[in-house]
Amino acid sequence: MQGSWRKAALAATLSIVGVSAGLALAAPAQAQTVESGSVSFGGEPGEVITGGNSYSYSTDDGDQLTTSSPLDNSRVSISISGYNGDQWSLTFDAPGSATLTPGTYAATTRYPYNGAGPGLDLSGNGEGCDEATGAFTIINAVFGSNGYVQTFDATFEQYCEGGTAAARGEVHIANPPPPERLELQLAVATAGTANRINGNAVLHGTVTCSQPISVSLDGTVTQIVRKVIVRGTFSTQVTCTPGSPIPWTAAAVPTGTTPFAKGLAEAITRASGYDTHYDEYVIVSDTSIVKLTRS
């Protein structure tokens, strides 16, 4: 039985999927635009979701397909934005937190209400099931890290509201291998300076990166001067490009009235960069003994 509340809920679901799809380029860990793929399905006469019609979508025809998967690869959700304005969502959910692997799964409850059992849901164009049963077969599933869906081939059949008419279809997705994760390296020079005028400790070093990013550096310098603990913090930012170490310089300002002086000091340094491919920060740290000279 179709209800207006169900259509409203479905519209909200598709809206959420659409927002995630907008993040595809920045966060493939949560959603990614499919580079090459197709989804086709059709219903038997009297089937609720399809109305007994057949549908076919392909990236080759200008239709947009977007996938998402959790970190444990236990689920694959596909959002379909047809060139003609159609909107569909299709989800395959493994039992519990098990990884989706090749095999056939009997779905006795519609996703996301399937609990520890397999779940399936085909919804779209303003239609959705209150209750659904069915089965799906995973033919091939290859995942990268952070939920990246590289290859996914599956077939499915769904029965809506306890009916006997089935919606059947298949999915074929082929993406390139996942992008490399950001690698960040930090080096702190063991020689620095203590400024005679302002009492600051000036440090320098290099950072290297595997993708073009902005690197933020911050840290703390600690020194004992005439039995007084002198401590100061520093921060700076540099633009890092792959290929060669990028130099950085930062000044630690003492927090008290005693300036940094000639001698040994401990420098704790942290560098962080944002990995746009995986929507995460990469942080590296270093603890060094730095010899300060007068400047």
Which key features would you list for this structure?
295 residues; mainly beta; 6-stranded mixed β-sheet; Immunoglobulin-like; 2 domains; disordered N terminus; 6% helix; 1 helix; elongated
Explain the overall architecture.
Strand 11 and strand 12 (166-174) form a beta hairpin. This protein has 295 residues and is mainly beta. It contains one helix and 20 strands. Strands 14-15-18-17-16-19-20 form a seven-stranded mixed β-barrel. Strands 1-4-5-6-9-8 form a six-stranded mixed sheet, with helices on one face.
> In what order do the strands lie side by side in the largest sheet?
14-15-18-17-16-19-20
Order of helices and strands: HEEEEEEEEEEEEEEEEEEEE
Mean pLDDT: 89
Could you say how many structural domains there are in total?
2
Instruction: Count up the helices.
Output: 1
Indicate the proportion of strand residues: over 45%
Shape: elongated
Question: Could you tell me the number of beta strands?
Answer: 20
Question: Separation of termini?
Answer: 82 Å
Structural class call reads mainly beta
**Rg computed from alpha carbons, rounded to a whole number of angstroms:** 28 Å
Extract low-pLDDT stretches: 1-29
Q: Largest sheet, described in full?
A: 7 strands, mixed, barrel
Give helix % range.
under 10%
Topology of helices and strands:
Blueprint: H1 4-22, E1 32-33, E2 36-43, E3 54-58, E4 64-68, E5 75-81, E6 87-93, E7 103-107, E8 109-110, E9 119-124, E10 132-143, E11 149-160, E12 166-174, E13 184-188, E14 191-194, E15 201-209, E16 213-225, E17 228-240, E18 246-254, E19 263-275, E20 280-294
Parallel strand pairs: 8-9, 14-20
Antiparallel strand pairs: 1-4, 2-3, 2-12, 4-5, 5-6, 6-9, 7-10, 10-11, 11-12, 13-15, 14-15, 15-18, 16-17, 16-19, 17-18, 19-20
